[in-house]
Design a protein that fits this description.
Layout lengths: L8 H10 L16 H13 L16 H21 L11 H10 L6 H7 L3 H15 L4 H4 L7 H14 L9 H11 L15 H15 L4 H13 L2 H13 L4 H32 L4 H27 L16
Helix pairs in contact: 1-2, 2-3, 2-10, 4-13, 4-14, 5-12, 6-9, 6-10, 8-13, 9-13, 10-14, 11-13, 11-14, 12-13
Protein name: Iron-containing redox enzyme family protein
Pfam families: Haem_oxygenas_2
Organism: Streptosporangium oxazolinicum
Length: 330
């Protein structure tokens, strides 16, 4: 993957530096960065901790001046999250599993999955898959950063979930590989980061939230709560995604990614809520609020994403950043 096209003056300046050998530099003021510019800049900084960019020297990953820029971007991003995501208070005497279930049950966001199951056309389904490719092609990686920061039962629970995400040691069953099959079956580009140019800020914000929580030990509780909400809201939507894809002519291979999540995540949600998050809060009672906040971030951003997509489709325009046929499709 190469550095994408800048989306404003901040990423234009940042990417100009990143294409050169590592060096000390001063970035433009972060408070002035618009959302598309901010999210792409933060995504690029985080991506250096994943697979990186072919045109960026690997030594940039730990360059102190770039870390200072990332810290300023993160502060702006965290302030934005705090404004749009109310911080839940842990209900006294309520087990974490029940508190998470109540939080999920109270979510009243638009049901994008129902639209995809019953109404979406093939181009719209491809758009949805393009959005999701930003995370699904590295599925599980952000949450795996939590493993070395845990101990005891919560650690074992997270390892159990992640082992399934990585296919139980079988490369062809890794969820990221199953998603690549879905992309190919839909005639889309299955290469890592292929649709980065196309996705809007809200899609990048979903990925950036996971990376933010995963990379910072202080956000460990939020990382676990985020994963729990992710698992607890997965089975039913993935069943609907599979139904929609079958309605549009998708065969078993195209639908396997979604069908796998219907089964796996029905088990994962119990492990995540009770063993992982519940065990973590039993070890660290004062961090219950962090767990619920991470879950609330996952739910809120998914709602904002669904609102963006459905609003665009209802107006007859693409939910991606261009209206023409997806670049990179075959």
């Amino acid at each position: 993957m190469l550095l994408p096209t800048p989306r404003g003056p901040f990423t234009a300046s940042l990417f100009e530096h990143l294409r050169r050998p590592p060096h000390t530099f001063d970035a433009p003021p972060v408070p002035d960065v618009e959302d598309e510019d901010l999210q792409l800049a933060l995504f690029a900084c985080y991506e250096l901790h994943y697979r990186g960019f072919a045109d960026v020297d690997e030594e940039w990953e730990w360059e102190p001046s770039l870390l200072a820029v990332r810290k300023a971007l993160e502060r702006r991003f965290e302030d934005g999250l705090a404004r749009v995501v109310p911080r839940p208070s842990p209900p006294p005497g309520v087990p974490m599993r029940r508190a998470l279930a109540d939080l999920v049950a109270a979510d009243e966001g638009p049901r994008l999955s129902a639209f995809l199951a019953r109404q979406a056309d093939l181009e719209q389904f491809r758009e949805f898959v393009a959005h999701r490719s930003i995370y699904h092609l590295k599925e599980a990686d952000p949450h795996t950063w939590g493993i070395p920061r845990l101990s005891g039962a919560p650690k074992a629970a997270l390892v159990e979930i992640q082992a399934d995400e990585y296919g139980g040691g079988r490369a062809e069953r890794m969820h990221s590989e199953l998603f690549r099959t879905t992309l190919r079956e839909l005639g889309m580009d299955d290469s890592y980061g292929a649709y980065l140019e196309r996705v809007p800020a809200i899609t990048l914000a979903i990925s950036n939230t996971m990376s933010l929580f995963g990379l910072h030990r202080r956000h460990l509780g939020a990382l676990l709560g985020h994963l729990a909400a992710f698992e607890m809201t997965s089975s039913a939507p993935n069943h609907l995604y599979s139904l929609g894809l079958r309605r549009l002519g998708g065969d078993e291979a195209a639908r396997r990614f979604y069908d796998e999540h219907v089964q796996a995540d029905a088990v994962h949600e119990q492990i995540a809520a009770h063993d992982m998050c519940g065990g973590f809060v039993r070890q660290h009672p004062s961090r219950a609020g962090e767990v619920l906040y991470g879950a609330a971030c996952a739910l809120t951003l998914d709602r904002l994403f669904a609102e963006h997509v459905l609003d665009r489709w209802q107006r007859g325009i693409s939910s991606l950043r261009e209206t023409e046929l997806m670049a990179g499709s075959r």
